[in-house]
Structures are given as C-alpha cells and as structure tokens.
Automatic annotation (TrEMBL), chain A:
Biological role: The pyruvate dehydrogenase complex catalyzes the overall conversion of pyruvate to acetyl-CoA and CO(2). It contains multiple copies of three enzymatic components: pyruvate dehydrogenase (E1), dihydrolipoamide acetyltransferase (E2) and lipoamide dehydrogenase (E3).
Keywords recorded for this protein, A-Z: Metal-binding, Mitochondrion, Oxidoreductase, Potassium, Pyruvate, Thiamine pyrophosphate, Transit peptide
Name of this chain's protein: Pyruvate dehydrogenase E1 component subunit beta
InterPro entries linked: PDHB_mito-type (IPR027110), THDP-binding (IPR029061), Transketo_C/PFOR_II (IPR009014), Transketolase-like_Pyr-bd (IPR005475), Transketolase_C (IPR033248)
E.C. number: 1.2.4.1
Automatic annotation (TrEMBL), chain B:
Catalyzed reactions: N(6)-[(R)-lipoyl]-L-lysyl-[protein] + 3-methyl-2-oxobutanoate + H(+) = N(6)-[(R)-S(8)-2-methylpropanoyldihydrolipoyl]-L-lysyl-[protein] + CO2
GO biological process assignments: branched-chain amino acid catabolic process
Pfam families with a match to the protein in the record: E1_dh (PF00676)
Protein name (record): 3-methyl-2-oxobutanoate dehydrogenase (2-methylpropanoyl-transferring)
Gene Ontology CC, one term: mitochondrial matrix
Gene Ontology molecular-function annotations: branched-chain 2-oxo acid dehydrogenase activity; metal ion binding
Similarity section: Belongs to the BCKDHA family.
Compartments in which it is found: Mitochondrion matrix
Start and end residues of each Dehydrogenase E1 component domain: 127-422
EC class name: oxidoreductase
Organism: Eruca vesicaria subsp. sativa (Garden rocket)
InterPro entries: Alpha-ketoacid_DH_E1_comp (IPR050771), DH_E1 (IPR001017), THDP-binding (IPR029061)
Main location: mitochondrion
C-alpha cells in the first residue's frame, strides 16, 4: 500500500478521478486530503485563464466570440468584464488572420491565448501555427521565441459531421517546435493550461467539447493559483498488472470504464492518461508495458499515422522483449465522420472495443 | 425612453444574439444596430425577431419618406432611386507622388521632407553599397560559392529611403527583398556574408538559406519565406507596441504578388479594426517571379485596396529616394500619433531576376530590363540631386565603390573560410530547453560519427 502511495507522489499524486471511479482498495490507501470539491472542465479552464491573466499583464485572449458572447463554449465567460476589450479580443472571422496576428504579438513579447472555435478551423491557420510559430525559435536561432497557446475543442463531439469532428493530435504532435497537450479531467485542464500559458514555446492545447460540462473532483492543491502540471509527464489513472491501456482526452474516461469491466473478469488493467502528446512520455509508457507485457492504445482520431502508431512504435522499439502479445491499436474508423447518430457511434471507439482488445491481448477472447 | 427590454431567457443561440441587440442602455455593442430615435409608442411583441423588424419599420414610417436615410447595421446610408453600379475602376488612376523627375531634377512645387547632408550622403552611399553587395553575392552564387541569392536591383531607393525615414525602434517585418533596411541600421557586410555562407558567426546558426537575415538588436524580424505571412504578424506586433504605449510602429514589406494572399486581406482588415500602428509598404515591382501584375490583380494596383479596408493610402514613385523618404516619414507620424495603419504602394521595377533560380529573360524582354536599369535607375536620379547640393562628387563615387568592393571581397573571403556551426546547433532552439529525445538523438549522432568518421565531412566542427 505504501508503495502505491509513493508512486502517486512521484507522478504528481493527484488521483481524484480514480476516487470517483473505482471502489478498489487503492482508494483507502490515499493519504491526501480527498477533494470534496467538484469542478467542471469548463470552470477549470476558465479559472486557469483568469488566474494567469491576473498574474501576468502580458497574457491576453483572442478568438471569435470570446468576449461579448462569453465564448462559443463559455470557456472565457466573465473575462471581458474583468479585463476589458484590449485583453479579451473579439476577432473578425479569419483564422489565418488572427492566428498570424497572435503570433506577431507573441514575437513582440505578449502572451496570446488564441482560441479556435474548433481545431477543425485551425486548418485555415495551420501555416501560421507551423511556419510562423513552431519553427521560429529554430529558424531565428533563438532570437524569436513565441510564447503562444492555441486552444480549443478537438476531435468528435455529438452529431457535428465530418468537418467538425476531426482529431488533430497526430498532425500537430508530429511537428518539432510545438508542444501538444490534451487534458482529461478538471485538474488536468487547470494544471496543463496554466503550464501552457507560462511556457515560452508555442503550445497546442486540445480540449474536448463533450468534456466541458463534465464534473471531476478537484483537490485543494489544484485549486491554488500557483498550481501547475509538468509538460511531458503522463499520469497513471489506475494501476494494474495485466495489461496497459494508454490513451488521452475523452478516451481516458472510456478506458477507465473498460478497466472496471475487465476487473470483473479478473483482468487488472493499468490506465495511462498521456496528458502530453508532444513530448510523449515514453518513459512512463515503456515502464508500464514492461510491467504488464501487454499494450492497448486508444484514440478517437483516424488510424493511419495516428498517436497510437507512435506509441506502438516506441514500445516495439524499446520494450520488444517484454511484450507477451502483439500491440493493439484502437482508433476511429478510417472514414470522414458520419453524422447519423448510429453511424457516428460505430465510427468511434466504444468501451466494448477497449474491453475486447484488452482481452485479445490477454488471449482471453472467445 | 431607455426602458429595459429583456427577451425571455432561452438556450437558443439565435435568441442570445438578439437579446444583446434589444437591451437598451447597455455599453459596447449591445444597442449598436438600433436607431437611436425610436418613438415612444414602439409596439412590443413577444417574438424578438418581429420586435426588431417592427422597431425598424416604425422608424421608417415616422420619418419623412423623402429624406431617404436609414440606419442599417454599420451606420446611416442614404438611398438613391437610380440603379448605379460603382465602376470597377476610376477613369484616372491614382496619381503617383514624386519629388524628382526622371533625370533627378527636383520638380517645382514638390512637397517633401527635407534631408540633411549627412542623411542624404548616407542614403546615397548605402544605395551604392547595396547595389555592389548584390552584384558580388550574385556573382559568388554563379561561381558556385553560394547556394542561392536574391538581389534587390532597381529597388535600392525603397530599401534605403524607407529605412532612413523610420526610427530604430520601429519593428521591421520584411518579405525577402529588403536587406537595405538592415544595411541602413548597421548590419555589416561581414554579417551579411556570414548568413549567406551559413558559418558559425551567422546569427541564424546556419539554419536558413541565404538572404534570410534577421537581427534582434536591429529590430528586424528574421525573414520567413512564406509569402505575406509577415503581414498579420506585423499587425500583432503593432498591437503589442500600442498596448505597451511605445513610440514606435511595426513596418512590413511585401510585393505585388504578396497582395493576393489571404493574409494581406486579413491583416489590412484587422489593422484597421484594431487601430494598430503599422505601415504596409508594397513594393509593386511589376513581377511576381514570372507573373506580371496584369495577371495578379485587376484593380488599379494595390493602393486602391487600402480604402476598401478603411486605411489611408498613398502611391509613391519607388525609384525616387526623396519621395519614398517623405512618404514613409509622414506615414510613420500618422501611424504612431493616431494609432492607425497606413498603406504605401511604391511603384518600381524588379531589374534583377526573381532569384538565382530564375532566368527572367524567359518571360520578359531583355530590352525592358535594360531600360529600367539605365533610364529609370534610382541611384542615378538621387545622385544627381545630391550632387546638385554639392554633397557628392565623381571622386567620392569612385572612392566609395572601390572601398565597398574591397570590403565585400574580403567579407566573402573571411566568411567562406570561417568554420561552420557546431553540430549541437542542429538540435538547439527547437524548444526553449532541449527535450530529452533530442539530447538522446544528439548523443546517438556523435557516437555514429565517432565510429564512422569517413562518412562525415571533416570540416564540420563537432
């Protein structure tokens, strides 16, 4: 038991979500003050931006509908009233324009937090994200750094069709010069967004629309305004010994549900929440697979060249001799996202898919 | 009159938008689209859409229908019963501001900002220096000593005169044909050469192709090859300067081709809305590689586009150093004092090829190039004026030319011999702090080089 508690202390120690989800003995071993407060991801993001704007006058927010409308998803609610129109800037509809302008402001020393209404729209600005932001520090040999954050909902929502459902984690995470983060819980949202705003490099911050309204327990430490999570460290949401399930964002919730179902069948699954897609926490990933010998990776995005592909490659390269089963990848279907509710459900990984894959890895299917 | 109208709260987006419009007396844009002279007996209906329409109709019926003015979103417009399309262009093109004639004689009644002898001589000397530098680097590329080069032949006046009219605190966002601005600010021939040869003294640590200069201390942002992306960047930087209350503006250069990019539209539109202190200087040199301006746009050049965005604009003779100086000087004053963007279209001609990868005789006549090079040369025009003030002479000219030529050849000789950047610079600056995976990769590369030294160039320092 003490071993488990020490493990938590090492990787940040915040296991509020497992408190909510599991009834295992692990819960009673926790020695931190259990967070009796709950917070939605939306409020977590809002409070993070608010606190960082309060602490640093160079931080400002820009995007469509972020000010007067209080944010398309209300993430920036109340900020215009508090900080004024110069620091909460409603932009005209031009992603290419306002992204370029945000990058220019970052060049000149401000710290913009640029909101994309969804990351699908970031494609219209992707040249600025990659060529004007990500590569600038390198191309200018350190003379130009770009302390900018690009944030917004990423991946599938509910019934929004092909042009509003794509996951961009794999695209952005392939670019050197960018940091790419994907929070799951409210604590993730607070800690990672604060870290992103403080970071001197450009950060792509991939949120999830369906998680905005979800409530998570949150500890006192996480509510403190100096709270920050390290970039590049994954979190072990649930410890296990039979199979490692690695994922990020909304799929973490699904993986935890799958782990409960697997526990009923006697399979102990370890669930890892990546939190950071680039840099990828290869150390934690490989240490876990070396412990369990089996790997299942899950993502919502398209399968080819996805985040899961990179995780599998890393494990095969570094922990091949520890594997007892072929690596398993679960991703969204290789089709543009259909709209009809039944088709959409079929096009996205579900809890049953994760359970089946884990059982396959344990040679327990059929 | 200002009674508060509140629509019933609803979760629908449409109602949310109308709710903002219907609340009287609230600040900012809440009631911006409502006419402010509503009569007292305005009908109130539960449906917010009908309500909005009713108030507008009421306004009209209470007005004298002959007055024919109405408040639409955006302000009052008067009506006209004639069906008239605004013509695609004016009969007369926007005139071009110049101070010196083709032969360098000052025009009578010309308005310009006076320049001192010191400034005028520095301007002319720098124009000559730029020309010689371009010549020698171009030749070096032809000889295989440089991989690539792009000259600014014919645009020396734009380069130097604009730089001369700015303050060193003004932040420059170049395209790639403005090294003269760096030259004016003090970048040495050696520094130019170091970048072109990508040696260890290059401020860019050998990361970029030649002519992609950058200098933090001279406020010149590193050249980025993507076209027109620097325009919105400049607007963002201008916004930052405004927020910091600095006595400075952002200045960005681009060509006639660059004005076709989406970023041009976004940047100009935005700069006007944000009231950003930024100068947009377009070098309309007639060609975008092989695309002539007749294939680039159908407007009267670029200057007319400013008005479309609500931006003050001017067309200048880009080959007239005095006109360029005056226009940029005045524009800068307005930008900084009034927090507004200004568009300057400098008409000129690209005498050189687009770059060393281009042979422009394939798409234009050698005669045309020759004519602009000789008859409309910006250097000779300005020299005539400078000499007319007895500030220059043939002797000074030949002294300068031979000195610069010698300096250039020496700079190249030194740059060529200087060591290339160290191997660790392949991995540095990707992030603020090198991440673990890159540190590991560097160790791996070094190990490999150690085991197979014959496969690696011996002149790269490790």
């Amino acid at each position: 038991m003490w071993g488990i508690v020490r493990q938590r202390a090492v990787d940040g120690g915040f296991s509020a979500s497992s408190l909510r989800r599991t009834r295992s003995a692990l819960v009673s071993a926790r020695s931190y003050a259990a967070g009796s407060k709950e917070m939605t991801v939306r409020d977590a993001l809002n409070s993070a931006i608010d606190e960082e704007m309060s602490a640093d006058p160079k931080v400002f927010v820009m995007g469509e509908e972020v000010g007067q409308y209080q944010g398309a998803y209300k993430i920036t609610k109340g900020l215009l009233e508090k900080y004024g129109p110069e620091r909460v800037y409603d932009t005209p509809i031009t992603e290419a324009g306002f992204t370029g302008i945000g990058v220019g402001a970052a060049y000149a020393g401000l710290k913009p937090v640029v909101e994309f209404m969804t990351f699908n729209f970031s494609m219209q600005a992707i040249d600025h994200i990659i060529n004007s932001a990500a590569k600038s520090n390198y191309m200018s040999a350190g003379q130009i750094n770009v302390p900018i954050v690009f944030r917004g909902p990423n991946g599938a929502a509910a019934g929004v069709g092909a042009q509003h459902s794509q996951c961009y984690a794999a695209w952005y995470a392939s670019v050197p010069g960018l940091k790419v983060l994907a929070p799951y819980s409210a604590e993730d949202a607070r800690g990672l967004l604060k870290a992103a705003i403080r970071d001197p490099d450009p950060v792509v911050f991939l949120e999830n629309e369906l998680l905005y309204g979800e409530s998570f327990p949150i500890s006192e430490e996480a509510l403190d305004s100096s709270f920050c999570l390290p970039i590049g460290k994954a979190k072990i949401e649930r410890e296990g010994k039979d199979v490692t399930i690695i994922t990020f964002s909304k799929m973490v919730g699904f993986a935890l549900k799958a782990a409960e179902k697997l526990a009923e069948e006697g399979i102990s699954a370890e669930v890892i929440n990546l939190r950071s897609i680039r840099p990828l926490d290869r150390a934690t990933i490989n240490a876990s697979v070396r412990k369990t010998s089996r790997l299942v990776t899950v993502e919502e995005g398209f399968p080819q060249h996805g985040v899961c592909a990179e995780i599998c490659a890393s494990v095969v390269e570094e922990s091949f001799s520890y594997l007892d089963a072929p690596v398993e990848r679960i991703a969204g279907a290789d089709v543009p996202m259909p709209y009809a509710a039944n088709l959409e459900r079929l096009a996205l990984p579900q809890v049953e898919d994760i359970v089946r894959a884990a059982k396959r890895a344990c040679f327990r299917s059929k | 009159m200002a009674h508060l109208l509140k629509s019933s709260s609803s979760k629908s987006t449409l109602l949310n938008i109308f709710r903002h419009n219907l609340i009287f007396g609230s600040p900012n844009h809440a009631s911006r689209h409502l006419p402010h002279n509503l009569p007292h007996n305005t009908r109130i209906s539960p449906n917010p859409i009908t309500r909005l329409c009713n108030t507008m109709v009421d306004t009209l019926s209470h007005e004298d229908t002959n007055r024919q003015v109405m408040d639409f979103p955006g302000g009052k417009v008067s009506f006209t019963p004639e069906i008239q399309f605004i013509p695609e262009s004016n009969e007369d093109r926007v005139p071009c501001y110049r101070v010196l004639d083709d032969n360098g004689q000052q025009l009578t009644n010309s308005q310009f900002v006076p320049v001192s002898e010191e400034i005028a001589v520095k301007m002319y000397s720098d124009m000559v220096t730029l020309q010689i530098m371009d010549n020698i680097f171009y030749e070096a590329q032809r000889q295989g000593r440089l991989s690539f080069y792009a000259t600014a032949f014919g645009e020396e006046a734009i380069n130097i005169a604009s730089a001369a009219a700015l303050s060193p605190h003004d932040v420059i966002f170049p395209q790639y044909r403005e090294p003269g601005v760096l030259l004016w600010r003090g970048f040495t021939l050696q520094e130019f050469a170091n970048q072109c040869f990508g040696n260890k003294a290059d401020y860019g640590k050998g990361r970029q192709m030649p002519v992609h200069y950058g200098s933090n201390k001279l406020n010149y942002f590193t050249v980025s090859a993507t076209i027109a992306t620097q325009l919105p960047n400049a607007v963002g930087a201008a916004y930052s300067l405004k927020m910091d209350g600095k006595d400075a503006c952002a200045v960005t250069f681009f060509g006639d081709g660059g004005s076709s990019e989406g970023d041009f539209h976004a940047a100009l539109n935005f700069a006007a809305v944000m009231e950003a202190p930024v100068l947009f200087i377009c070098r309309n040199n007639g060609w975008a590689i092989s695309t002539p301006t007749s294939d680039q746009f159908r407007s009267d050049g670029v200057v007319v586009k400013g008005r479309a965005y609500g931006i003050r604009s001017i067309r200048v003779d880009g080959n007239d150093a005095l006109a360029m100086y005056s226009a940029v000087h005045e524009a800068r004053e307005m930008a900084v004092r009034e927090h507004r963007p200004i568009l300057i279209e400098a008409l000129t001609y690209r005498v050189g090829h687009h770059s060393t990868s281009d042979d422009s005789t394939r798409y234009r006549s050698a005669d045309e190039i020759e004519w602009w090079n000789k008859a409309r040369n910006p250097l000779s025009r300005f020299r005539t004026w400078v000499e007319s003030n007895s500030w220059w002479s043939d002797e000074a000219e030949s002294d300068l030319r031979s000195r610069i030529k010698k300096e250039m050849l020496e700079a190249i000789r030194v740059a060529e011999k200087t060591e290339k950047p160290n191997l660790n610079h392949m991995f540095s600056d990707v992030y603020d702090v090198p991440p673990l995976n890159l540190r590991e990769q560097e160790l791996l590369v070094r190990k490999t080089i150690k085991s197979h030294p014959q496969d690696y160039p011996s002149d790269v320092p490790l």
